[in-house]
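**User:**
Make up any protein.

**Assistant:**
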Amino acid sequence: MKSTFLLILLTFSSAAFAQKDESASPGRKKVQVAYEYQAQLADSTITIDEVIANWREVAADRDVKKDVDALAIAFGSEGLLELQKGAKLRADSLLARGVPLFRLKHSKAYFLVAFAELDRELKHYPRSIRSYDEILNSMDSMPELWDIEYYRLSGYAPYAYAINAALGLGRIGKASAEHRKQVTDLLTVSLEHHPSDPVGLMDLVALHYYGAIKKEDYKFKLDLLCSRKPELRKIGERFESEIGGAAAGKKPKGK
C-alpha cells in the first residue's frame, strides 16, 4: 500500500472519530479518547508502539466490547498502525477481526478500503474481491470525501473509494486468470450503473487493462462516455497512466 494513501486513511479516520459526541455510547467515547491520544503522533510526543498498545487496551475494554462499531474501530485502528509499521500480516489479521463487526457504513469505509488493498497485495484475492464488491455497491458515492484535500483536488472526491476498488479489481484481473471472470462481471455491472461518471470510467479502463475489452470496443465506449462529459477525458488519461504504471512497476501519480 502506498504511504500517501495510508496516511490519508489514518488522518481522515482520526479526524472523523475524534469528534466529540456527547450522545455516544461509553465504548464510543473511549474510542474518541483513544483518537485524541493517537493525535499526539503528529508532534512525536508518543511512539506508534505506544498508540498500538493503547488500542489493544481499548479493544479489551468492557464498554467497547458492548458497542460492536467501537470494537471494530479499535481493531481497525490498531491494524492501520501495524500496516504503517510494515507488519502486513498482523495488520491483515486485525482488519479481518474488525471489518465484519461494523454496522455503520461511514465508520466502516476507511477500514474496508485499506483491508481490500492489503488483501490484494497479500494475494488473498477472494476476500479482496468481496471487499471491493462491497465498496462498489455501497460506497460508490461518499460526499464526506470532499473534506480530504487529496481527493478534492482530484476532481472526483465522492467517487474516490469506488474508483480505487475498480482499480484494484483490474489489477486482480491482470494478475489472476482464476478470478478474471468474477472481476469482469463485477466491473461490467458497475459500468452499467455508472455510465457517465468517473467510476464507470475507471471500470472501463480496468476492463481494457487486462484484456476483457478489445481495443476498438474500448475506444468506442471511452469516446461515448467522454462525449457525455468531456472533462472526463483528462481523468481517463490519468487512470490509464496509473493502472499502466502499476503494471510496469512504476509509482502511480498522486498515489
Remarks:
- Residues 68-85 form the longest helix (18 residues).
